[in-house]
Amino acid sequence: MKKIGLTTTVPVEVLIAAGYTPIDLNNLFITSSDYLKYIDIAERDGFPKSLCAWIKGIYGACIENDIKEIVGVMEGDCSNTKSLIEVLQLKGIKVYPFSFPHSHKREDVENEIRKFIDIFNVSIEEVENSRKRLNEIRTLSKEIDELTYIHNKATGFENHLYQVSLSDFNGDLNTFEKDLKKIIYDIKKRKPTDKKLRLGYIGVPPMTGDIYEFVEDLNAHFVYNEVQREFAFPRADKAASIFDQYYDYTYPYNTEFRIKELKKQIKNRNLDGIIHYTQAFCHRAVEDIVLKKQLDIPILNIEGDKLNTLDARTKLRLEAFLDMLLDLKEIKR
After folding, report:
1. How many CB atoms neighbour CB 311 within 10 A?
2. Roughly how many angstroms between the first and final C-alpha of the chain, as a whole number?
């Protein structure tokens, strides 16, 4: 099967029906043992230092791994993607556009997906067959999510990893399905953890993956990963079609739609506080103003840049925030 790179989650059902192997360039970048080389490649080619590290990492991963075709999300994701795509086209890479319409009207979402289906010359029946197969695997990620916030057995990092990987199913559906079944079997055998604080993680998946281990050492447990969970399409089983499934996907649409799901999960998971991660030089950082106004829960905004580990200042801020949450919890008691 031919490889095709993704700049973010898109209707992979269409790509798989067309005989492609989707490769999420974000995952390719951040899981590399030498992830900084991808950023260096972009900066050597002229990308400015004052640009989001994810965009530069995606570019470098695409060039270094010889990805010849990509799907670029023109609306509903990063505002820098259009410029990224123009540079990639100069490099001879074939780009297929896709958009999550800002209007968030059901008919507009359907029109965009139908255009995507036409580009890859597949039928809606083939796409729905792919969707059925993928949703079987997505159901396993839902089980890991429940092992995190209901049974307190899965770690916050495991919750993050096995949901974020559903953007491309690690490039191999059958192998990834087997991996999920094995990790679920192993997690179920554990004793539940007993952390005092239940945290939510919202915002883009982090550059700093060590945040999960760090908070666990401070008597806290991430029981909700917002965007990663959306990548796993937890409500896909209730969607009548691929159009409904991607209409109900909160990540690319307006903040008001996203907040409705956040409020539901804050209540369902009994969260004590939220860490809102944003990336340096990203327009999504401004959303923190709206989220703090609309969500009735303590929120700490932290920002990442090039490092894949937490810096000393961020660690201090996290410690202070968690201390405050513990004090609030004691007062409520």
Report:
1. 13
2. 58
Which CATH architecture best describes the domain 2-119?
3-Layer(aba) Sandwich (3.40)
pTM above 0.90, yes or no: yes
Q: Could you tell me which residues are beta bridge partners of residue 23? A: 5
Q: Which one, of 237, 220, 141, lies nearest residue 183 by Cα?
A: 141
d(CA 90, CA 253): 29
Residue spans per domain, the chain: 2-119
Q: Per-residue pLDDT tens, the chain, 333 aa: give them.
A: 799 999 888 999 999 999 999 999 989 898 888 889 999 999 999 999 888 888 899 999 999 998 999 998 877 567 778 888 889 999 999 999 999 998 999 999 999 999 999 999 999 999 999 999 999 999 999 999 999 999 999 999 999 999 999 999 999 999 999 999 999 999 999 999 999 999 999 998 898 889 999 999 999 999 999 999 999 999 999 999 999 999 999 988 888 889 999 999 999 999 999 999 888 776 666 777 888 899 999 999 998 888 888 999 999 999 999 999 999 888 877
